[in-house]
Amino acid sequence: MAIPKVVGTETEYGISAVGSPEFNPVLSSSLLISTYAGSLRRIRWDYEQESPLRDARGFEPVQVREPGEEDLGLANVILPNGARYYVDHAHPEYSTPECASARELVVHDKAGERVLERSLDELQRVLPPGQRIAIYKNNTDGKGNSYGTHENYLLARATPFASVVRDFTPFLVSRQVFTGAGKLGGEASWDDRDRHRFQLTQRADFFEAEVGLETTLKRPIINTRDEPHADPDKYRRLHVIIGDANMMEVATFLKVGTAAIVLKMIEDDYLPDLSLANPVAALHEISRDLTCTAQVRLADGRRLSAVQIQWEYLERAKKYVEQEDPSPEHRTVVDRWEAVLTALEEDPFALHRELDWVAKYRLIEGYRERDGLDWSDHKLRLVDLQYHDVRRDRGLYHRLVAAGKVERIVTDEEIERAVMTPPDDTRAYFRGRCIAAFPDAIAAASWDSIIFDTGRDALQRIPMREPLRGTRAHVEDLFERAPDAASLVELLRS
Questions:
Q1: Where are the domains of the chain?
Q2: Each residue's pLDDT tens digit, 83-101
Q3: Do 237 and 229 form a contact (C-beta atoms < 8 A)?
Q4: How would DSSP label each residue in 451-487?
Q5: Which residue of the set 46, 71, 88, 194 is catalytic?
Q6: Known catalytic residue at 192
Q7: CA distances (Å), 280 to each of 143, 170, 209, 271, in order?
Q8: Whole-model pTM over 0.85
Q9: Of 22, 92, 153, 479, whose CB has the highest number of CB atoms within 10 Å?
Q10: CATH architecture of structural domain 7-416
C-alpha cells in the first residue's frame, strides 16, 4: 500500500539590480535574506547528515567537501514557519516546510512569495539612493541560464527506482501542458530557430538527459539524488527538478496534487507502460506546441498528444482514488485534472484564469497587438519577466489577481498566517515551534533533526526521521508544559 505523500517545493528566485553597476548576486542574495531573518541568522544549518551525491541507482562518488554557504558567510536560516531560506547558486532560495497535502503546499509556496517581497522591502530601506533590487519567481534569465523550482515527494524505499523512471517520465514530459509557466523565446543551443517563439514551459530547453544526478548541467527528467531527509531504510525523497515556478494557484495545486497521486499508483503498481520512445525530444516538442495537439511516439509505436497521455494517467487515477484512497483532496485533484484536460482539448486559451502559460501568452499578445510589436521586440520579453515580479504593486500576475482575472483556491489570510506559522500535520510543526519559542537554545537544525544547546556539557540532537511525526497533535501539549528548551528536551526523552 502506498505511503502518504509528504511534499515540498524549493524555489530559486531570480535577482537583479537597477542602478548598481557592481551588482553581485551572491552578496545581494545574502544581504536580502540576512536583513529579513535578523537574529535567526545565528542558528546554523546542519550539514552533517546531508549526502547530495548519493545516487538512487546504487552508487555514491567520493565526496570532497567544498566550501559551503556557512564557510562563505552566506545567509542560511530556518524560519518560524518551518521553511529554509538561504543562498543557493547566487539566488535566494525558499524551501517550503513539509506539507501533507497539495492545498497546504499552495499556501506555503505562496507564503514564500510574501517572504521574498517583505525581504525586498526591508533591503530597499538600507540600499543607497538610486539602487533597487528586483526579485522574480521565474526560471530563466533569458541569457541561457536557468535556475530551478524543485519538488520533493516522500516515497517508500521498497518501490523499485526503475518503476519510478518508467512510469513517472511520461507523466512529467506531458504534464507541462498545465504546469508550464510560459516563456517567450528558446534558449537551447541545439535549436536556434525558436528565439522568438512562445512556448509552454521555461525549463524544457535546459533538459538534455532522461536519468541522472545533475541539477545544473545535463539536467535529467528523472533526478537520482538519494537524500531522503528521513529514515533511509523506509523512505526515499524523489527530487523533481523539471517543474516551472508557477504563480497560478491552480497550476501549483495540479502540479503537486497530480504527481502525488501518480506516485502512489507507481508504488501500488497500478499503471500501464506509457514509456516514450524519446522522452527528451518529446519534452522539447510538447513545450513548443501551443495547440497541445502535437503527437509524440511511445515505445510501443503509438503516437499520442501530451493531453492524451495525461488522459491515460487520469483514467487510472479516477479508479485508483475511488478504490484505494478516496480522500476529499484526491477527489478534488481528480476533478480539477479532468476539467483542465477537457478544456485543453476544446480550447487551451480558455484556461487564462488557471494556467500561467495561457495567462502570460494573452498578456504578451495583448501588448503586441496594441503597440504593433513584432514577436522579437525586447519590450515583450520585459512583459514576460514582469509577470513574475514578486511585488504585488508591480508584478503583472498580481495585477491580474487584483482585477479578479485569476482563479484563487487559497485565501490571503491563510497565506499571511503561513508566513510565520508551520503546517499542523507534519514534523515542520515541531521545527517551526522550536524556532519561534527557543531560538537562543538552538545551535543548528536541518530537515530531520534539531540540535539544542541547553547549557549542558554536550549539545543534544533531537532526531526527526519520521515526516509525519512532530505534528501539532503529537507535540502541542509538550510545548505548553515546557517553559524552556531544556524542559522540552527532557520531556521528549522521558
A1: 7-416, 424-493
A2: 999 999 899 999 999 999 9
A3: yes
A4: EE--SSSS-EEEE---TTSS-HHHHHHHHHH-SSHHH
A5: 88
A6: no
A7: 21, 10, 6, 21
A8: yes
A9: 92
A10: 2-Layer Sandwich (3.30)
